[in-house]
Amino acid sequence: MARRAGETSGMSVLFSATLVTSVTLTSTVLGACVGATLALTGAGGAIIAVPLLMFGLQLSVIQAAPIGLLAVASSAALGAFLGLRAGIVRYRAASLVAAAGMFMTPAGLWAAQRVPNTPLTVLFAAVLAYVAVQMYRRARGSHSASSSALSIPCRLDSVRGRLIWTLPCARVLAMWGAVAGFLSGLLGVGGGFVIVPALKKSTDLPMQSIVASSLAVIALVSVTGVASSAVQGHMDWPVAIPFAVGAVCAMLIGRTFAKRLSGPRLQQGFAVIAGLIAFGLVIRVVMEHV
């Protein structure tokens, strides 16, 4: 009897170790997919982090969101650091947008804890579908023309090379930062799909500077969400750490190929994949209630 009990215990330990290894490996691979996507498509590409965790590890939105935020924060921080070193991050504008976002992130987390998983999943699918459509249109060049120079609230001073700060400029940046922060807490997304178009519409900054500044905002806002989730005990660290490591490593590798692989076709391909993922989320909800 004692021998049989020992064998059963040993098999249980072996099974547990195998399961942990499998989860760690899967989490790392999924994180690598997010990092590679972020490197090749820019800010906004990491929105697929939560759906990948939901499909790959069968997590709910509320379980996957903090893990996705940790990976997004890590990858975005790396991108922002490289942008700062290159001198293309508008740190004053990024700080204002991030401050508004960090203020609203806890509100998004609070709402996420109180909204049932089904409507939260449907909402995420709707946001993902919207991002897919907008990215596809931008890649095709079929989006509407940007605002005229006179209507842009945040304009660059041609002499000093800095943004001219006005009340309308500060107001519009803070507003979009608040929206991105709330969605970050609610859905576990970085908010690049909000910040990049907002900066493009509200400023006359070059696209390279917009993406780098957006990454700085995403890093700061996501860190707030990660910290809040960790304090509340909602972070699954055994899954989150390998996921974040995979994302950062893949982003570093992906950046070396980004110039050769990125382009309209790649953006369109990602948009199609994002749309299919959004459709899959809706099908998942329907199947759970059949």
Secondary-structure element order, N to C? HHHHHHHHHH
Low-confidence stretches are: none
Query: How much strand?
Result: under 5%
How many structurally independent domains?
1
Q: Span from first to last CA?
A: 46 Å
Characterize the quaternary organization of these chains. Answer: single chain
The whole-number mean of residue pLDDT values reads 84
Task: Let me know the number of strands.
Answer: 0
| Number of helical stretches of at least 4 residues | 10
Computed over alpha carbons, the radius of gyration is 20 Å
Quick description:
With 290 residues, this protein is mainly α. 79% of the residues lie in helices and 0% in strands. It has one domain (20-109, 144-261).
Structure overview:
By secondary structure, the chain is mainly alpha-helical. The protein has one domain. About 80% of the residues lie in helices and about 0% in strands.
Short key terms for the protein model shown above:
Probable membrane transporter protein, single chain, 290 residues, mainly alpha, 79% helix, globular, cell membrane
How is the topology of this model organized?
Layout: H1 2-41, H2 49-57, H3 61-86, H4 91-112, H5 117-140, H6 167-187, H7 192-202, H8 207-232, H9 237-261, H10 264-288
Helix pairs in contact: 1-2, 1-9, 2-3, 3-6, 3-8, 3-9, 4-6, 4-8, 5-10, 6-7, 6-8, 7-8
